Amino acid sequence: MKVKGISLGCKVNTYEMEYILSEFKKHGYDIVSNNADIYVINTCSVTNTSDAKSRKIINKVIRENKEACIVVMGCMIEANKDYLNDNVNIIIGNKDKNKIVEYVENYFKNKENVKKLYQDFDSNFEDMFIDNMEGRTRAFVKIQDGCENFCSYCIIPYTRGKCRSKDKEKVLKEIKTLVDNGYQEVVLTGIHTGHYGENGSTTFPDLLKEIVKIKNLKRLRISSIEITELNDDFLDVLKKNEIIVSHLHIPLQAGSNRILSLMNRKYDKDYYRNKIQEIRKIRPDISITTDVIVGFPDETDDDFMETCDFAKEMEFSKIHVFPYSRRNGTKADMMPNQIDEERKKERVTKLIDISNELEKDYLDKFINKEVEVLIETVKDGQSIGHTGNYLKVLIEEELKRNTIVKVKINRRIDNYLEGERND
To answer: CA torsion 422→240→187→184, rounded to 10°?
Structure first.
């Protein structure tokens, strides 16, 4: 039988879907891109818009595949536990994803729809293990799940549960397997990645110290990390291990202390600024990217301008800009002085313009310098890849995919660099 996976939202969902499809493959199913007998949809619920998108895709799959077995799982289900659709055959939340093959085979045996949700998550990490990520030159490894930050705009602590971590030895074994299978770069991912091991016998820096010892691992990337998790132990590991790439994605969310407080973030501008300065003393050319939400309830023009000024001061290499989107069940949804959509749109445009300028300034620093590029795409006489600090580089030559080559950068073209091999 044929299976198609549809993953929405974050890198954690992407990893989970890769695992689920690999399990189907092990059990003799064919993985396809369309016209399947089984559709597995891993939903997102980070905003009301994400919810709506998840529902829209579910309905589209049902409409176009009336005879197929439809499986729906993930955050949208956890956030809407009353969701019921007679055309969806299996409904689960964020628990039991590693049992999907079993659920599907029981469905075909019994021809009975299944809806299974839990009142709460237990403290155990739901183990998954992958040894390949089809079509990718960098592999994701999920090491953590859950969040306990309770930012006022976010539903995720309610849909993913408390923080829990994958056993250290299992993480190391998975990464070693991926490296043995040819992956030179691994990305650590989780809902709250830097919170790894907080309640156990190890810590995130301790885990990093072990990972960088893995033979033939060339690059280790962290998908995202909170500024409050960049403690002295982490900075010491960053200082001593070049395998950890010179790129950190550190969410800011707002550059106004008043708005940060309303968001229930756990830091202020001075704390954020001081940590960034510490990092740049260790890695002067590091790429620091960030997330910013604009149009948060009661955000004034002065608050927004403060965010713009702080973004410039921090010299981010890229800002992922999001208009605030209301989410049922969060504190921010009930706050007064919601910002109108037109004003949000204006602020998004302005901050994206700032991001574009900051990105160009960062890229320009590497003109006439030598960089190492992991080749990801080879086509029509060209090769495209990324450096460790996530600069996109184009080379006018067909090189071997999944190799790391030295490249001299000649010029910047918009938001990427062009260079030539410099072996």
So the answer is: 40
CATH classification for the domain delimited by 123-245, as one of 3.10.290.10, 3.30.750.210, 3.40.640.10, 3.20.20.80: 3.30.750.210
The residue among 99, 196, 207, 187 whose CA lies nearest residue 145 is: 196
Q: Measure CA 46 to chain center.
A: 13
280-364 belongs to which CATH class?
Answer: alpha beta
Give, for 258, the enclosing helix (H) or strand (E). helix 257-262
- Any residues with CB less than 8 A from the CB of 101 and at least 6 apart, and which? 20, 23, 24, 27
For domain 2-116, the question of CATH label 2.30.42.10 is answered with no
Position 208 scores a pLDDT of 97
Single-letter amino acid code for the residue at 168: K
Q: Who's near 8: CB < 8 A, 6+ residues apart?
A: 41, 42, 43, 44, 50, 53, 54, 57, 74
Instruction: Going from the first residue of the chain to its last (423 residues), give the mean pLDDT of each consecutive group of 10, the final group possibly shorter.
Output: 96 95 96 94 91 94 95 95 91 95 95 89 85 91 94 94 93 98 96 86 93 97 96 96 97 98 98 98 97 98 98 98 92 96 97 98 98 96 97 97 97 96 87
Overall CATH class of domain 370-421:
mainly beta
pTM value?
A: 0.94
393: left (phi over 0), alpha (psi -120 to 50) or beta: beta
Residue 229 gets the label, from left (phi > 0), alpha (psi -120 to 50) or beta, of alpha
Q: Cα(166)–Cα(149) distance, rounded to whole angstroms?
A: 19
pLDDT the model gives residue 120: 76
Residues 6+ apart with CB under 8 A from 363: 317, 391, 412, 415, 416, 417
The boundaries of every CATH 3.30.750.210 domain in the chain are 123-245
